[in-house]
Amino acid sequence: MLLGFxxxxxxxxxxxxxLAKHAGVARHAWNWGLSLTKNILDNNKNNPEAKIKFPTSIxxxxxxxxxxxxxxSWYYEVSKCAPQYALRHLRRAWDDCFKKTKLPxxxxxxxxxxxxxxxxxxxxxxxxxxVPRIGWLKTYERLPQGTNPKSVTISKRANKxxxxxxxxxxxxxxxxxxxxxxxxxxxx
Length: 188
Known about the structure:
InterPro entries: Transposase_put_HTH. Residues 1-44 form the Transposase putative helix-turn-helix domain. By secondary structure, this protein is an alpha+beta fold. The chain has one domain (2-168). 37% of the residues lie in helices and 22% in strands. The protein has 4 helices and 7 strands; from the N terminus they run βαααββββββα. It has helices at residues 13-46, 57-68, 81-98, 174-178; strands spanning 2-10, 115-119, 123-125, 128-131, 135-139, 151-157, 160-168. A 7-stranded antiparallel sheet has the order 2-6-7-1-5-4-3.
């Protein structure tokens, strides 16, 4: 069973700047990808005979690397995972929109729901966690031990930074086996 874990980070000013840079790159990649995909949808609507295939998150990332990264050097100051996950989340948002389960994705604003996702070699210790390109981040509460999260999401709410990740947990079945159950037969 997967359980979610979220806690506040104890960050210094240098780390705050680095976290803000990661969130900014993720937001820029999202907004760039959203603008591009909206243009593709408009083109396909107005020119049915010259349709362009709707891009996957991998296509978007290839275009981002080819077109955007050379233009903006600050993309190289952060982990490559920040824009990759932003484009994955954008594609998932479009998929939900196409299934009519959610509204179309919207552009993100600076300072409102800033977040980004990282993966790679993540180490967890009792009161700190090491994430790629950022290093060790201290936490206010103890982290679950014996876990190796594959990815973490770092978000900012009310000028505080939080980290969240999923951990694998086995359900506690010992309580169920100790209780006695009554079987009821239902006849139709």
